[in-house]
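Posted in: Structural Biology > Protein-Ligand Complexes

Title: Requesting predicted complex, flavin-adenine dinucleotide in pocket

I'd be grateful if someone could produce the 3D structure tokens for the following input. Sequence and ligand are given below.
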Amino acid sequence: MSTAKAPIRLTLKIWRQTGPDAPGAFREYPVGPLSPDMSLLEMLDVLNEELTRQGEEPVAFDHDCREGICGMCGAVVNGRAHGPQPATTLCQLHLRHFKDGDVVVIEPFRAGAFPPVRDLVVDRGAFDVLIAAGGYVSVNTGGAPEANTLPVPRAAAEKALDAAECIGCGACVAACPNAAAMLFVGAKVSHLALLPQGEPERARRALNMVRKMDQLRFGNCGNEQECQAACPKGIKIDNIARLNREFLRAAIKSEET
Amino acid sequence: MTASPSPDLDAKIPAGPLTEKWDRHRSALKLVNPANKRKYSIIVVGAGLAGAAAAASLAELGYRVKVFCLQDSPRRGHSIAAQGGINAAKNYRNDGDSIFRLFHDTIKGGDFRAREANVYRLAQVSNQIIDQCVAQGVPFAREYGGGLANRSFGGAQVSRTFYARGQTGQQLLLGAYGALMRQVGAGQVTMLPRREMLDLVVEDGRARGIVARNLLSGAVEQHAAHAVVLATGGYGNVYFLSTNAMASNVTAAFRAWKRGAFFANPCFVQIHPTCIPVHGDYQSKLTLMSESLRNDARVWVPRRPGDHRPPARIPETERHYFLEEKYPAFGNLVPRDVASRNAKEQCDQGKGVGETGRAVYLDFSEATEREGKATILQKYGNLFQMYEKITAVDPVRQPMMIYPAVHYTMGGLWVDYNLMSTVPGLFVLGEANFSDHGANRLGASALMQGLADGYFILPVTVGNYLAQLPPMPPDPESPVFNEISRQSEERVKGLLAIGGKRPVDEFHRRLGLLLWDHCGMARNEAGLRQALQQVPEIRAEFWRDLRLPGSGAELNQSLERAGRVADFLEFAELMILDALTRTESCGCHFRQESQTADHEARRDDRRFAHVSAWEYRPGHQPLEHRESLDFTSVTPSQRSYQ
Ligand SMILES: Cc1cc2nc3c(=O)[nH]c(=O)nc-3n(C[C@H](O)[C@H](O)[C@H](O)COP(=O)(O)OP(=O)(O)OC[C@H]3O[C@@H](n4cnc5c(N)ncnc54)[C@H](O)[C@@H]3O)c2cc1C
Ligand code: FES
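-- Reply #1 --
Done. Output follows.
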């Protein structure tokens, strides 16, 4: 692997909160010496084992794949969703990006639409509600035509995939000063609007998803672009522009009919 | 050592020629009247590819469906992490592919330990899967002309793998998840995330529902239905370190085993050749580097043992491209079991590289020169990034270092041709069942199987079962239900009451190491016997010295893990017993006592052309049942990839 580096020590300040309605506060934990090749979540594992041995409650945090694809992990580290590295999920953040002696502040994603659950865990169920409002193509199993009957230009497929890479982690919402979900919805609407398969429901999808977003406790987009900076998958704000166009187009169409 | 096996299990394979079985069967199955479908409720446990596909399709048919998963959203099931692709017999490349060839490659890849009729059906529906996914808007890779693109995978000489960069599983799952959420929106599916199935309820000989724990509140809930579908994934995490997501587990399948579902071939575990090597004791999981990389990368080690020069300083003539030399026909694209064993063999000879000596090189330099850096990055960019994030090494400049790691479990609950287990009304799909991959799974075939089971097979076969049941709703408050629920609660309390000193991962890590050493890439009688002795010792320590902070009435992630580890600690014994009983080598199951002169797996078709399906017997050793494997359209041969 990489050349062995000197172990480091860190001071962690972690948000602890026993339940949705309990008051929360930061607690300080000195940790180390730790290998810089360790991931931040592995550091939390080590801390949790230690806390358990001491009879204290471990830090609750969500995670599953630990390779940046499931979107389950997420926390704000030193003020940034998923931490200081660009295009990196929390689980892919390694200690080599910190210096010996650093203070590392770790707190949950905070947004009105993501109520707290415990410690670093929040409830992102609102994202599922958004998808249920239209983030799909309505095709029943068995009703599909031969796959190659409808050619899709390579560039369109690639662009659609750029948008479809969203992992639904919620960093965009957490990073947005208004806690808006425009990047998330924009990515899904774009993915399907860019493909011929999404065409028949294009207008309906944009209208329904935007309306649902307004009903849930997401804020309005103030064009701050923090979402793009925080996105671990590099989803671009072009998708928000496209969402606005799609919504407008759909709204005009629905007035016409 | 085991009681003599009981007579053959009946897989209910339909009569008729192989190519017509499925069509004939479908037309002969009983149907539920469309107006009656809403009177039937079905529980689907698991929302990975198999579960999400099944739940959406069942709801589309009109059944009432309840879906359970561990994660906060069904979009995050372990399937999301699949990288390389999904097979289908479209023959878009005109390279001679066909349904028969896909069937043949898959059954040969599994070293002739899979059920022929199932594998043929899998190849048949493979093309419909691609059609379905494309219609959902899955953005597969395309050619400039707008048609779908393909890549090659191990164990095949045709190019039949469909892909979406290095994140095919993500895109397929998001397609299935969309279909599922559409049914949630329509009120046909009740989605219950952050729920863990703790037990199966069997009443009057039929699966009637499950007991599940709400992971946020700790409440133990009782859910009844007319049929239960398990799509709970594989048990690779019994080894602690694997490429599986952290929550992957055996609990649902193991609990069903204890309620009467037979467990088939538990020792068949796939060790994937190309993973990022272990680098520290604190390590929590291993990361796969997709097999698709072997299309363009060459695997090598220094020819001379103990050669510690950096790779760039080792001249071409002193590099040993061991797969290309030994298997000229398939080269770097031999099946996984073969590639893994050869990598281990090289490292055992002292030719391994890296800090630990347990790694081989995966080198892209020739492909980069041939096709240009841009092309290589377009194909594998996200994998390169993933590698660099973990290791801080750029694979364009320096070859990757890789080593085999536990990846997939071919074993699982035994199911018949209808995907029904030995418990009537309990169906098992995806990686959780055992049916289609025999003793070794070829790349890009798990996604195919999960989606075949979920979209196209179960929705048809479950109807046949339900059509024979009265639609009276089962009672979630029956005495049997209440009793099983009470047992689950007792178990949770029992774990919390141990009051020992050590955290749960410590026991899990020990179990994992033991299995890796003795029931991993190579197995022998002495090692297996030793492991069989040690597992109960670790288990006893676990039940004596585990410390669980917190309570059972809140989100308690240590408690969740402890429940899963407790099951792994019992299940491990079953795996070892199975490995001991099968004294032949086949596919991934390499018994050192049974090998050819070139160290390839030597099968014993006379004694072992069967599935071993184990029955739980309280207080006794599990009883082996057998399903003999008959081949009508292929002739089992010694696999050769040379
Ligand atoms: C890194 C990686 C890459 C891979 N790449 C490929 C590839 O390129 N091509 C290919 O064909 N295959 C690939 N595979 C294999 C393939 O991804 C899996 O075999 C397949 O996705 C399994 O799908 P599944 O639906 O059966 O289960 P999973 O996706 O594992 O889903 C299991 C579901 O069950 C739920 N669950 C589990 N236990 C419980 C419980 N007790 N109670 C409630 N819910 C529960 C989980 O929450 C989850 O929703 C890869 C595997 C890995 C690890
Ligand atoms: S744990 Fe899956 S993205 Fe981080």
